[in-house]
Design goal:
This protein has helices at residues 28-32, 39-42, 46-57; strands at 2-9, 15-20, 67-72, 79-84, 104-110, 115-120, 137-145. By secondary structure, it is α+β, with helices and mostly antiparallel strands. The chain has one domain (2-145). Strands 2-1-7-6-5-3-4 form a 7-stranded antiparallel β-sheet, with no helix packed on it. The model has no long low-confidence stretch (mean pLDDT 93). It binds zinc ion (ZN) (2 copies).
Length: 146
């Protein structure tokens, strides 16, 4: 089951409402095989979908950690919710809609009480608000979805 996160900058109010994780229908079969693979709805880039489905047909391995994930632009720090997956060695490359830089995944890191920080995965770098430079976010809502 996935979680819904409403994240808001504790200073200026910049926010993102993101669904993270996976829903009940998100089996590898539903997403990557059949006549209407769910991947078409989850990824808004035709070439990425084509490449992934081609690799699945060729028998490449689908990594089991797929799901909706939080991405940030490493340049201007705008946040996006995108579907992460990996087939063989192929991963989607999503681009920032403002500056076209390839987005990187961020994860929740510990903040002070009531707030959270976001950290770039695999890097020693924290996310900062694109509007005001603050690095603390308040999680204003949390619920499960399926
Ligand atoms: Zn801010
Ligand atoms: Zn950008």
């Amino acid at each position: 089951m996935g979680q819904r996160h409403d994240l808001r900058c504790s200073k200026c109010g910049y926010e993102i409402d993101a669904m993270l994780g996976i829903g009940m229908l998100y089996s590898p079969e539903n997403i990557f095989t059949g006549q209407t693979p769910l991947l078409n709805e989850l990824v808004d880039d035709q070439l990425t979908v084509k490449e992934a489905l081609k690799r699945v047909k060729l028998g490449e391995t689908i990594a089991d950690d797929y799901g909706h994930a939080l991405y940030a632009c490493p340049k201007d720090f705008y946040l996006f919710e995108k579907f992460y997956f990996k087939v063989g060695s192929f991963e989607p490359k999503y681009h920032c809609q403002y500056c076209d830089t390839v987005l990187e995944q961020v994860t929740f890191a510990k903040g002070t009480a009531g707030t959270t920080k976001l950290k770039f995965i695999g890097q020693d770098k924290f996310w900062q608000c694109p509007r005001c430079g603050n690095d603390a976010m308040v999680e204003t809502a949390f619920e499960n979805w399926d």
